Amino acid sequence: MTRVVLAANNAEVGGGEVMLLATASLLRDLGEDVTVVGPDAADGVLDRAAAAGFAVERLAPERRRYAHELRAWHARRDDLLWCHGLVPALATSGRPRRIVHLHQLPTRAHRAALLAARSGATRTLVPSRWLSARVPRTVVLPNWTPEPQGRGPEASSEPGPPSDRPRLGFLGRHTVAKGLVVLAEALHRIPEADRPVLVLAGAPRFTDVDGEREVAAGLERLGDGVERVGWVSPGRLLGDVDALVVPSVAPESFGLAALEAMAAGVPVVVSDAGALPEVVGPQHPFVATAGDAGALADRLEACLAQSASTRSAVVAAQRHRWREEYSPHTARDRVAAVVRDASQRPA
Fold this sequence. Notes:
- This protein is an alpha/beta fold.
- The chain folds into two domains: 3-144 and 327-344, 3-Layer(aba) Sandwich (Rossmann fold); 167-325, Glycogen Phosphorylase B (Rossmann fold, 3-Layer(aba) Sandwich).
- It is 41% helix and 16% strand.
- Strands 3-2-1-4-5-6-7 form a seven-stranded parallel β-sheet.
- Helix 7 packs across helix 12.
- It is globular.
- The two termini are 21 Å apart.
């Protein structure tokens, strides 16, 4: 049994923190002793880890203090430290028995910090080949999602709830980078009689005032064709829509929302931003050029107009790709290999 500490990048739960919790669960299933450390906040990653039964170490919520406390705390331990993000990796720079796990592409301003953060680390992990091509000397550990509750392969080809208009889901931050402005324009181009209701999950987090106004103005053009449901679980949203759209403009290092739709048996339309085409696979029929509202409108109309047999084939292909590449069963062996490799090899 290996003692593994998973260090969070942020207190709030984003994509990296979702994967930290997923990693903790897999490691526990493998028989490892797991502790989660991070900045403390109400309903943050530590609360969720504690609710799942993991030992947690609560450090200061402010980033600079968190980094200082994490370095001092880790100096008293000899566990394998799995740093989920640049903040804990930089805070423990130079220490042995560390894994650095990046969940997003470092900015130019962060590249020097990344060089320091990797000092002494046994491995640097990234979730996609797209990101690995941009960060040298990294190992790809693809993200994964659990089997959706209440939806199996037999139910995966069933459409959403009956409605006069199709329902199109969006899950994530309401920002320009996530493609909401382009999505609003694409939907506006679809004739009103054929236009789906946009079921909008998430909130305008990690954005500025100008971006928030731009998104609001775009959505306002859709009138009552937008249904806002706030932060809900992926399963709840995906059980209530006919398709999911991931229209990102900024490059995605992976694309968890698309993967969750693939697992749940919901057709997904994505842009070609970053790793999204890699996630859905080269044969996926619903990929639009990032930032091109006309191309996105075309792919949305094609997706929502599918016959039942075509939909079933697309959903089956999505499920197969998820099962073979991104399911917990596949991830289990990969995670076990990472821990084994980190325990055996020098930095």
